[in-house]
Every structure is written in C-alpha cells, then in structure tokens.
Amino acid sequence: MKWAKIKALYPNKFILLGNIVEEPISSNQFKILEGEILMVSEDAKEIRQAYQAYNRQGKEVLYSLPSTPKEFIVENVPLKGILQ
User: Fold this and answer.
1) pTM for this structure?
2) pLDDT in tens, 19-31
3) Measured between alpha carbons, how far is 44 from 66 in angstroms, rounded to an integer?
4) Distance CA 22, CA 45 (A)
C-alpha cells in the first residue's frame, strides 16, 4: 500500500511496515514509497516490541511515529560505539 494512503488511513498512530519499497534520495537518505502494514497501534512500547520481534527473525521492518509526515524520509546513520 502506498505510504500516503497508509498515513491517511491511520493518522496519529504508530505504524509497523514490512516489504518496504523505497526510493534513494542521496547516499544515506531514502523516501519510503509503500509497504505492507504489519501492525498499527497507539502504544509506542507495543510497536517497539513488535519491531524487535521481527528484527530477531531477520526481517527488515520499519515503524513510523504519529508525527511522521506524508513524505516519509529515512536517513541511515552509522552507529558509534566503543570497540573492545
């Protein structure tokens, strides 16, 4: 389903998406065009737990916040940590 339609159907909700179709904007930015709705919730903790469960299964998923705009842009940011 197209992202604009998903956002219109579920305004002000957390939305967990799978089978994401994205369009590159730059080397580290992508525009989410569409995806499969896996879960819709008003509870951030519930969405995060579902997101983590899908990740543990090796599935690529993404969730949007209630404030995510109609133009859903994702930026890949390298993780920084301490190597030991």
Assistant:
1) 0.86
2) 999 999 998 899 9
3) 10
4) 26
